[in-house]
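pasting for ref
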Amino acid sequence: MNRSLLIVGIGILLAGIIASASLFTVNEAQQALVLQFGEPMRVVREPGLKAKIPFIQEVRILDRRVLDLDPPVEQVILADQKRLDVDAFARYRILDPLKFYQTAGNEAVAETRLNAIVNSALRRVLGSVTLLAILSDERPRVMNDIRGQVNDEAKRFGIEIVDVRIRRADLPEETSQSIFARMRSEREREAAEARAQGQEQSQQIRARADRERTVILAEAQRDSQVLRGEGDNQAIKLIAEATSQDPQFYSFYRTLEAYRKSLNKDDTTMVLSPTGEFFRYFGDLSGAGHQQGPAPTSTPMPARPSNAAPATAQQ
């Protein structure tokens, strides 16, 4: 009884091992290649539970989704002799598992070869275009040319290139520094030229302003001289008319003006004769009572005699 149960258990175990070795599962994102002693026997594309000969056949599972390819940064020389560090990426899909296995073997080897193919296509295509084409609307056409060349070479691996794009395209560090230095010197030259033009224009404006100022001042001086002459002429006419109407009053007025200007608050001492012509209105408002007499040799007189002013005011 025990021996029978042991035999049955061993049989069940062997059947399970044989079943697990003869069955495999393929999901929707996978495809399989069945190998017998290293030789491909068939390709399995439909998902589900599949069978194989146990211990004789083996299964290689390959991805049927779109896979990423990230080649290393490649430095290329453009048609205008500018250098660019190009960081590109690609998307690919395994279309023929049998050809893929026969040419590449596995995904790691395939990615290594695709990296070289992508970088070679980048150098060929970008070497025939300028930097302006990469930065303009021609960039999609350039990308399509690169994808077409990569796809032509990838077909021999059973691979389809879905897309190739440039992630970044930067100038090398040494090139960036030289371009920056050249741009700075160019801007400095333009700034110096602009300053020189500004200095020239400022000098022209100052010279024109000085010339206009000189002309305006000369015209103003001329007009002022003309107006002053006309004013003096009118003043002389008015004075002549006033003098001709009352010469005695005019003489009296002029004498009072002389008193006001000479007898000021500065306590000026004047040595004059009281009977001189200068003081003729002190004794008589008409000036008729003035008599000429010999002038004293030295008779100091204050600027405002104390007895003259009241007498004038009284009269």
